[in-house]
Each structure stands twice: as C-alpha cells, then as structure tokens.
Amino acid sequence: APRNAAGLSHTAFLMPSRDDLAHWLAHAAQNNVQLQGASDHLVSEAIYLADPEGNGIEVYRDRSPEEWTYQPDGTVEMATIGLNLQALYDSAPKAA
Q1: Residue 36 to residue 47: CA distance in whole angstroms
Q2: The dihedral formed by the CA atoms of 24, 27, 32 and 36, expressed in degrees to the nearest 10
Q3: Which residue in 25, 26, 59 sits closest to 45, CA to CA?
C-alpha cells in the first residue's frame, strides 16, 4: 500500500540499552544491511530500514526519563535530529 494509505506504518524493535542498539548496528554494518535513516528523538534513538517488500522497520532504544529534557510546563522535549551513526557504531561493545 502507498505510504499515505491506511495500514501498518512500520514494525519497531526495542533494544534494551544503547549498547544493544550499537551492537545491532555493528552487526547490520558487517552484513551490509542498507539503512534508510537514523534519528535522535531526544527521548529515543532510532535506526530505520526496510524489509525486502519495502515495509518499514525501526530498531530503537528509549532513553531513561532521567535523561529527558522537560519544558517549563512539564512537557517532555522531543525532536527529530540526525543520529550520529559513526559514534554509535564506535561505542559498540567489542568481542573479547
């Protein structure tokens, strides 16, 4: 279905930690997985790709509420800015 049609937007997979997201990214890079984008939403970090049929996939991790920035009215600050994939990749735990 076209992207603007009703239906499934994408499937998302939550990683337990930033280390896990970095490990997934390193694995994806080693296997030449084509990424479509990566975003820092201030409350989460997300990597986007598509399956062979073009369905959207998101692999992400949530930041803990202690890391969030709150506005004076108490709302949580959110945004969509570029995620530094190189820094995330470089932070991946190295095999012993």
Answers
A1: 8
A2: 10
A3: 59
Nearby residues of 9 by Cβ (< 8 Å), 6 or more positions away? 56
pLDDT(1) > 80: no
Contact 85, 34 (CB under 8 A): no
Q: Higher pLDDT residue, 9 or 62?
A: 62
Tell me the CATH number for domain 10-90.
Answer: 3.10.180.10
Domain ranges across the chain: 10-90
Tens digits of per-residue pLDDT, 10-37? 899 999 999 999 999 999 999 999 999 9
